[in-house]
Amino acid sequence: QALAALEEEILQKYRRQEPASVSLAPSSAKKSVRKNIPIYVSCEDIETALALYKREGIHGMYLNADAMEVCLDDCVSRGMEMYLSLPHIMRGEMPRELLTRIREWMDRGMTGFLVRNLETFAVLRKAGLAEKCVLDHSMYTWNDEAADFWKDQKVLRNTVPLELNEGEIRHRDNRDSEMLI
Q1: Residues ≥6 apart with Cβ < 8 Å to 64
Q2: Does this model's pTM top 0.85?
Q3: CB neighbours of 134 closer than 8 A, spacing ≥ 6?
Q4: Are 46 and 70 in contact (CB under 8 A)?
Q5: How far apart are CA 118 and CA 141, in angstroms?
Q6: Structure confidence by residue, pLDDT tens digits, 119-158
């Protein structure tokens, strides 16, 4: 019990206070701000992608290969950015079949890639596609030096690491970052 109480006391300064109430109905001030924030959705399956891609206000989508095949043309025609979510783990070269599909999708208007590991980024950079990469939260961008490294690699954007607390997020340069919500 003493250790649990000590742990609670140590962690208390890192806890956020839950707001008393949260309104989901936007006020007129919130509407003007929301229009300027691009919303991207990440879908792990075709059903979710099909349910969301026609929704108003979505700027772009991150989709796996199966969902990309089904949704790409409609989404591109609606002016959406489309990114292929690549695997969390990849060893060696990208499968030849996937590379063929990627070239076809790029010709049809696919915007780029959601990169989740260094090996995948290396393969894409070698193929001259580094400037079409968005880094997932699992890619190291915890501080400004790391984010600057990735800017030098010419990636489009990075994602704020999930582990950062509010103070760390405020200290970090987030201009070229996305945040998961």
Answers
A1: 43, 44, 45, 84, 85
A2: no
A3: 62, 83, 112, 113, 114, 115, 155, 156, 157, 158, 159, 178
A4: yes
A5: 12
A6: 999 999 988 899 999 999 999 998 889 999 999 999 999 9
